[in-house]
Write a structure and sequence with these properties.
Length: 226
Amino acid sequence: MRKIWWKIAAVSLLLYTSVMAFVITVPKPAGVPMGESIRNYFFHVPMWFGMMVLLTTSFVYSIKYLRNPTAVNDYNAEEFAKTGTVFGFLGIVTGAIWANYQWGAPWSSDPKQNGAAIALLTYLAYFILRGSMVDEEKKARIGAVYNIFAYFMLFPAIWILPRLVESLHPGGMGSQGNPAVNPKDSSIEMKLVFWPAVLGWSLLGVWISTLRIRVQLLKEKQLNHE
């Protein structure tokens, strides 16, 4: 039971989020053509939070690999990066759906959108780099170094540069985005759904990653027995 409580928590939190996100009363700020599309806030933003948790975990395991080059550390770095990248793409897709209602087009080349795309392309290059090498030790070592580089590219692309230029996205300079996502403006009801959603998506990402790591370990065990 001790090993599955967090998996039960992940399912429970996501079920709670999926229901409450469409049930609670959400604010409708005057002058913002947002309507009910704000409910995407409970999916789009938590996926980005989950992505950061997963990519940070991958980054830590890459450092651990360079200090202690074991297959387990490499598997953890790779699989957490894969799941984190998937969450990033889900974040872009849900953001594009929201942008279509909020800004009139799914992709308006907003600095935040462009930064997110660049960050994810950087991680896609990580997987291409790994796939281009045959030697496992070389793949893991070079992959670990590149993964650390990709992680440090993530922050300027998503969190720093978009805040220094004009942006439609909330948080940017001269932002004309959704003021309801401002912590001071969001309601208590929204926070009671948002933070469980962040935890639920993060736990789901960890769950998926650990399953994939177990598959990798089983494959390695099978190869060693042959």
